[in-house]
Amino acid sequence: MIKVNRASVQGSSGKTGSQTNRLTRRQSIWGLVFLSPWLIGFFAFQLLPILATIFLSFTNYNGNVTFKLGNFKFVGFANYARITTDPNVLQALGVTLKFAAISVPLGLVVPLLFALLVNSKHLIGRNLFRTLYYLPSVLPVVAATMIFNGVLNAQSGWINQLLALIHIPGPRWFSDPNWAVPALNLIALWGVGNAMIILLAGLQNVPTEILEAATIDGASGVQRFWYITIPLISPVIFYNLTLGVINGFQYFIPAMLIGGINGNPQGATLTYNLQFYREAFVFSEMGYASVMALILFVITMICTTVMFTWGQRRVYYAGGER
Amino acid sequence: MKRQLYVLITLLMAASMILTACATAPTVAPATSAPATAAPTTAAPATAAPAAAATATAAPTVAPTPTVVPTVMSGGEGCASNAPKITWFVGLGGGTDPAVIPQEKAWVDKYNKSQTYACLILQVVHNPESYDALRAMIAAGDPPDIVGPVGKLGRENFRGGWADITPLAAANSFSLAGYDPALLNFLKDNGIQIGLPFALFPGVIFYNKALFDEAKLPYPPHKIGDLYQGKPWTWDALTELAKKLTVDKNGNDATMAAFDNKNITQFGMWMGFTGGRRMTAPYGGAVPYVGTDYTTAVIPQQWKDEWTWYYNGIWAKDAFMPNNDYASSAAFGSGNPFSSGNTAMTWTLTWYTCCFDMAKINWDMAVVPPVNGTLTAGIDGDTFSIPAGSKNQTLAFKVMKDMVMDADLGPIYGGIPGNTALRQAFFDGMKAKSGSNTVDWNVALAMLPYPDIPHHEAWMPNMSKSESAIDAFYNKMSTTSGLDLNAEFGKLQDALTALYKAAPSQ
Questions:
Q1: A257 — contact with chain B (CB < 8 Å)?
Q2: Do B64 and A67 make contact, defined as CB atoms within 8 angstroms?
Q3: Which candidate from A61, A65, A154 shows the least CB-CB separation from B325?
Q4: Could you give the CA distance from residue B53 to residue B276 in angstroms, rounded to a whole number?
Q5: For B117, phi and psi rounded to 5 degrees?
Q6: Is residue B126 over pLDDT 90?
Q7: Average pLDDT of span B249-272
Q8: pLDDT in tens, A200-219
Q9: Across the strands, what pairs with B72?
Q10: Helix, strand or coil, per DSSP, at residue B157
Q11: CATH of A78-320, one of 1.20.1630.10, 1.10.3720.10, 3.10.450.50, 3.40.50.300
């Protein structure tokens, strides 16, 4: 909030102290008035649910009954103790980490390659390609997933049919537990258009004079890319990395559509969020599900903190701002 | 100035709430392992089961979870002024297909204009999200007054949350004596009468006449006890027939040595829209425990027999049913093989008429064969129920009775009416939808007396988790060849036992 120098205000306008106080109070009130939409939304739809989640995590509340005293018991840390031994949670964490381990690097490299491609002055019809690569990210994730469900079908999907043309037996993408997560990663690639656009903006902000100076000094294309372009767009890469990790942990809709609530085949698509959904909305164990939600928050927070700590040393901010 | 400020604050607060509410629109949750089509769930005699857990009642404190807000499809147009509102919640069973919703809305509008004592409000939630939505309504102390069509599974997921309609019927001077006691018994959960007979869906064998004609094979029997090609109509006979009707891309059928099960273009049989439990219905009803021992799982022998038959049927060299890869492929209807026209037979329940083009496919029904001399067709049956937390139960019953007795509402859901006086109108309606096909609905009527008892959606300990475990097992069978089935049965039994022991209350 902007601090008002009272002396200068008094001096310039000649107002008394009480008049200044009234002015300040009025400005504060108007400030709060204009902030009120966000404040009300925050309290009603963010803070209250967070507090309710923390409260529920200490109860055995079952979602099938009215939420009132008598319909649940306080169980202390029993829900927290249970999560450490729940094999489904451990499996779901494994699936999520496996998914993130593939999706995060892919989500950085592939859009960067696309951005380099559509930023190239040698590419004819750059705007057309930028639009085409961005277009899939406009599609609703449910529609895209349903399309890929057909595309990756082991019998009739065109990817396996293409592989069959060159006598390569296609994977049973959604029937084989070993191929289910890679298949989900393929689907995730469908939406890299957003990251590509952000990286493209970053690439276009790289000063050409630095690249030209490096060229004159004899730097090769790879050297220019590695020692100049990458450091200069590192804030954008870091931004995509952070979002990628958070999105990886929150991955849900495609997994649910492909594998159903059981994470078929054989739990291979049972992500952490899907397991949370099952506990909360299928099994109605709201208390236990609240713990899962809080644990996910803690994990994400730790990852983000670690990344920001690392980012302070590794990411180059022009002007020294961090 | 002060007044203007207050007005402005009020307006901003109102606007903020509206904007925030819009901005936090709920995410539509995706499908569950249930069939893609919104098939009705079931009713049928439950086994003796432990006491109800909890009953939904009374006033709200805090609604705890994000949820899907039910869509009001009809806001009570045509209601008499001051008529009390009765909310009808659709979603746990059938009734959420896009084609069905306008019919429901039209029926509600007609109903509201036809009487003055109630104003019926229709709310529809897509089936996968409906459980979540109803839970949130109950948790908030504002449950609907009528829920349905709903079957066994939907009701069991809210076990203990339904009103006993017997006193409500008495309060409305409505006698239950006019109903077949067996049908009334169908609709008792844990000894409580939770609804009136409404829509019945017996199991039958749907068959594609064109594929039989092409193979020059006679149609399967329409009457119980009839022979097929001079032999008794059994599951073994059906299996042999299905193999003859399963064809690979070279034209070989599954009885031939050269048959290529990696390139099948037509299947002889499909267990239509089944899960791990539903598919066992024709082998005889059962539950995975013995007596009242709710802590030890015992996989019934008939389940093992049926699952073995199914597993061999999809993975053997002479496979005659689609595994998961085939069934989900475009050539076989992307999860609905019979609708593709490339599958000759399917055992399923008559709600399946919702899910294929009845006028386009040349189809009819045959009787379900017996297993070891015992005929079990299986049955689903939907009804309407009144949540125990409804604040207007007596009036809700009065409206529910009108719904069940109405000749126009039942046909919307495709079930054979529980009220025998309404059946001919139902058959006439189905005939009109069947194009040039002449369907023998007497087959379905003949199957009604052969339900699976205990029902395939009957209660079991830790219901939703146990159901989930069985469905995961079913998916494993459908996607994995080379399993040691006996070992898998043992693993499932152990998993169920663990779930039973972990059940919060019995």
A1: yes
A2: yes
A3: A154
A4: 25
A5: -90, -10
A6: no
A7: 96
A8: 999 999 999 999 999 999 99
A9: B123
A10: coil
A11: 1.10.3720.10
